[in-house]
Amino acid sequence: MGQREEMLAVVRSAYVARDGGNTEGLVTAFHPQGLFTLMGDKSALELTGSMQGHPTLRGAFSKLIDAFGFEGREILAELVDGDRVAVHSRVVVRYRPTGQASSTEILDLFRFQDGKIAELIEFADTAQIKAMTS
Fold it and tell me: Which residues pair with 30 in a beta bridge?
């Protein structure tokens, strides 16, 4: 398996963990000093911003998974360039406390180091998410 396929396999396993509610499986896809940034308006969603390192990621991912289920992920496009991967996907986001669900598109920008995710910048519709939680 080449580097391209290895990176895509890590991304896909991270998505399976995220979509399946497996916090630990998601964390292990990240480099120990991995960085996750959820882009968006902090007033729309408290968990926007950057988190770094396995302990911090574990806490943040646990909160996200407890609050928001991801269902029926459809990968619309995957682009690989060197140590970077971009994935455009469509998912149904379910706000667990109310069961309310909405389809949305997400853009994930990954950077890899030593076969792990060193950085993930995620672009999601935080205004749509805020509307679900209000």
Answer: 117
